[in-house]
Specification:
Blueprint: H1 3-23, E1 38-42, E2 47-50, H2 66-80, E3 88-92, H3 98-112, E4 117-121, H4 130-137, E5 143-148, H5 160-168, E6 178-184, H6 192-201, H7 205-217, E7 221-225, H8 230-244, H9 250-264, H10 269-283
Parallel strand pairs: 1-4, 3-6, 3-7, 4-5, 5-6
Antiparallel strand pairs: 1-2
């Protein structure tokens, strides 16, 4: 082969190699926690997006959940200080402060010891990318809570198997500096009719159901949230009124709060907060 032809072929091969390198996905940069204490995981791009100002409520404003609040705080404090702690599932009634409690606990820990704990939110739709996130967090110095809000799985959804392996299984296991918190309306994260269908169609019903239920068993702590009483609901509102310094006659406040819950057909922390936004707006107060 003549030298000019050889040079032309080498040039073509170099262009092909360069094009393939541009098409190949680049290796994700290691996670960096210098910019914030909270992040959202972008699974499509394998990167952490900092959240400088987390949307949360003060821990003192979470009423009617004292028992589970204390358990979660104790678990989180132990983890932040380097002691053993459990993955936690907060399950139960809607609007009773499950996700608010996770964010408030994170803020409380960092208030006591600055930058001691990182909170990373992963969306339900990106659970399958969780192993890649774990890979970035392995070996990091800071302690990390991965948080998934409103976690549940529907029919024919197999991504729960990825979560099972990450939480407790696999050769490497869960990194020592990572804990997983999730909230859900379902105790076992799967719809009841899905479990019932497994019982009716499987060759060995007990083994089939065990496979589904074993996901929630990966959480060492199950914290149940239940519908609140009227006394708890009014206590929440009194707490908000006191915290934000809103001036209103107590009897008038009670009557308006009860009427608001009646029109909504429910009492919960979310309903109490929605009432407060309406009340503060009408009276000219800013909730800041």
């Amino acid at each position: 082969m003549s030298k000019p032809n050889k040079d032309r072929k080498l040039a073509v091969l170099r262009r092909i190699a360069d094009a393939l390198e541009r098409l190949a996905p680049s290796r994700p940069a290691p996670a960096s926690f210098d910019s914030a204490d909270a992040f959202v995981w972008n699974g499509a791009e394998d990167r952490l997006e900092p959240v400088p100002d987390v949307s949360r409520v003060d821990l003192s404003l979470l009423k009617g959940v004292d028992h589970v609040r204390d358990i979660l705080l104790d678990n989180t404090r132990r983890f932040a200080s380097g002691l053993p702690a459990n993955n936690t599932l907060l399950w139960g009634a809607r609007g009773m402060g499950k996700s608010s409690l996770v964010k408030a606990a994170h803020a409380d820990i960092n208030l006591r010891e600055r930058h001691s704990l990182v909170l990373i939110e992963i969306h339900r739709e990106e659970i399958e990318s969780l192993p890649r996130l774990m890979g970035q967090l392995r070996g990091q110095d800071r302690r990390v809570i991965i948080f998934c809000d409103d976690l549940s799985f529907d029919h024919d959804d197999t991504s729960y198997k990825s979560l099972k392996a990450v939480l407790d299984g696999g050769i490497e296991g869960r990194p020592a500096n990572v804990l997983f918190y999730a909230t859900s309306n379902r105790r076992h994260l799967l719809p009841r009719d899905m479990l019932d269908n497994e019982r009716s169609t499987a060759i060995n019903p007990s083994e089939a159901v065990e496979e589904k239920v074993s996901l929630s068993d990966r959480f060492g702590l199950w914290l149940g949230f239940h519908n609140c009483s009227q006394a708890d609901y009014l206590d929440m509102i009194d707490g908000y009124v006191s915290f934000y310094g809103i001036k209103i006659d107590p009897e008038d406040l009670r009557a308006q709060a009860v009427e608001w819950a009646t029109t909504r057909g429910a009492r919960s922390g979310r309903v109490a907060w929605q009432f407060m936004q309406d009340l503060a707006g009408r009276l000219g107060y800013r909730l800041e």
